[in-house]
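note to self: dont lose this again. the chain is below, predicted strucutre after it. 82 aa total, dont forget to put it in the shared folder this time
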Amino acid sequence: MTDRPTGIITFLFTDIEGSTGRWEEQTAEMREALARHDDVLRTIIEAHGGWLFKHTGDGVLAGFSSPRPQPDKTIEHSVSML
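---
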């Protein structure tokens, strides 16, 4: 588990829209899908130095130390869209 961020923090909140209805209609499928969802989010959040501090059932709350400016990445991503 990544250490809790300090200082200025950037937060990520996720939610699966319409999940309540899906749970009622497709319980087994939702259980599997939510397990995959949680694994993917946890992996990505931790890979980027985030701290996953709460599960909401169909979403997560995570915190990250404030991002550092990376102008080279901005240019790289802009060029890749051309």
